[in-house]
């Protein structure tokens, strides 16, 4: 475990020495290194030496918030994407998605290849637009070996690497019926999650060493994060706040060194990469992310602000679902509440309706609509009759069947 750390530290120090002007220069290429289901505490708690070395040489975001990691497997979402919600949101840099929406690979000009390498078949729907996209059979090591080989074959502008084994190990910890180290506790001694996370970090070091050997490290932007977080009991349940936050670090030319920022949103990652690479972001508008202030060398560290919009949406999803469960328990003795719950659900914009979110025009409008549905559930639980739904008001189109 120590060797990749020492190599990476030496490589990064070598890259910075004698290259003072590199902080002002745009990177020649970018790597987005994604460790599936990496808990926000994993780098420090597990001593992920290569991730921490990047933090020492770059900028770490202490709290990076993403949309609750739901994975609708039927309906409109499943017809568009094979993976959970945070994955295309990460690559698109926006909460407002639609079939065929642009992603980071579409922002880079033609001429230099863009690459997507993974060992998970769930990410098939993310590969469109890449010059080369490959689902590598086998483990994380096989995916990184393939990435090293592919990046050595030709000049390239963007590499997305998505390693699956850590997320699979977390799912196993939470789902297994057998007694095993890590069952319902990803941090337990002997847990497969711990082993997978440390292996992913080791492979990060291997990829960095390959860049150093080719003389490319000092001109490469490196961004390491996760697609979603992980519950300490295993997996990424939609309602678990541990699944809503991920680690994040930027390192390379133009990045402030040894800096820690208080917070960002997952939707900010791609706009920040694009700004550092001098390419336009793939999406804009009210639900798109922003360039993370304080990442650039020479910039000021911004103060911590209020909870990000994504966190507020996540909190509303959790509150609605918990209240709906409480209201449902009333139906044996109060059958009419079942209809009222259905009406509240129809007015709520949850993860299963994410492709409808753009119709409301802004994340603030989604929060307003969701709060009204939450208030309806609170009214039901108080023993009162909730408001009349919009389509049942006098003069409104009939919603009946």
Low-confidence segments, given as residue ranges, are: 1-8, 10-23
In CATH, the homologous superfamily of the largest domain goes by the name Alkaline Phosphatase, subunit A
> What is the total domain count?
2
CATH A-level architecture of the largest domain: 3-Layer(aba) Sandwich
Q: Could you report the average pLDDT, rounded to the nearest whole number?
A: 92
Please give the count of helices.
13
Number of E-state strands: 8
Strand order, largest beta sheet: 4-3-5-1-6-7-2-8
CATH class of the largest domain: Alpha Beta
- Share in helix: 25-40%
CATH topology of the largest domain: Alkaline Phosphatase, subunit A
Could you say which structural class the secondary elements and strand pairing correspond to?
A: alpha/beta
Inertia-based shape: globular
Specify the biggest β-sheet.
8 strands, mixed
Report strand %: 5-15%
Query: Radius of gyration, rounded?
Result: 22 Å
One letter per element, helices H and strands E, the order comes to: HEHHEHHHEEHEHHEEEHHHH
Distance between the termini: 64 Å
């Amino acid at each position: 475990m120590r060797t990749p750390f020492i190599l990476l530290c030496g490589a990064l120090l070598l890259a910075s020495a004698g290259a003072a002007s590199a902080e002002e220069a745009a990177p020649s290429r970018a790597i987005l290194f994604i460790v599936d289901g990496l808990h926000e505490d994993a780098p420090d708690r597990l001593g992920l030496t290569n991730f921490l070395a990047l933090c020492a040489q770059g900028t770490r975001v202490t709290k990076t918030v993403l949309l609750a990691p739901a994975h609708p497997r039927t309906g409109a979402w499943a017809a568009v994407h094979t993976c959970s919600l945070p994955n295309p949101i990460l690559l698109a840099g926006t909460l407002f998605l639609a079939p065929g929406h642009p992603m980071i690979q579409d922002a880079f000009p033609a001429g230099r290849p863009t690459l997507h390498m993974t060992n998970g078949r769930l990410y098939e729907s993310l590969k469109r637009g890449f010059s080369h996209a490959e689902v590598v059979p086998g483990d994380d090591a096989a995916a990184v070996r393939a990435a090293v080989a592919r990046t050595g074959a030709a000049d390239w502008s963007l590499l997305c690497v998505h390693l699956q084994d850590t997320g699979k190990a977390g799912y196993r910890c939470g789902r297994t019926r057998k007694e095993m180290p890590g069952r319902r506790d990803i941090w337990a001694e002997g847990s497969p999650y711990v082993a997978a996370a440390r292996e992913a970090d080791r492979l990060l070091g291997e990829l960095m060493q390959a860049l150093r050997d080719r003389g490319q490290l000092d001109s490469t932007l490196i961004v390491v994060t996760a697609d979603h977080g992980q519950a300490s009991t295993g997996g990424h349940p939609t309602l678990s706040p541990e699944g809503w936050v991920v680690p994040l670090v930027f390192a390379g030319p133009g990045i402030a060194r040894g800096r820690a920022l208080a917070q960002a949103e997952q939707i900010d990652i791609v706009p920040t990469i694009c700004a550092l690479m001098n390419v336009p972001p793939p999406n804009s508008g009210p639900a798109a992310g922003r360039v993370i202030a304080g990442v650039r060398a020479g910039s000021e560290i911004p103060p911590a602000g209020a909870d990000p919009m994504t966190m507020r949406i996540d909190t509303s999803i959790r509150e609605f679902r918990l209240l709906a469960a409480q209201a449902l328990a009333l139906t044996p003795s109060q059958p009419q509440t079942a209809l009222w719950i259905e009406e509240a659900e129809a007015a709520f914009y949850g993860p299963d309706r994410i492709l409808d979110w753009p119709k409301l025009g802004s994340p603030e409008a989604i929060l307003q609509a969701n709060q009204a549905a939450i208030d309806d559930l609170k009214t039901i639980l108080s023993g009162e009759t909730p408001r009349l739904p919009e389509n049942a008001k006098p003069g409104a189109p009939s919603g009946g069947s």
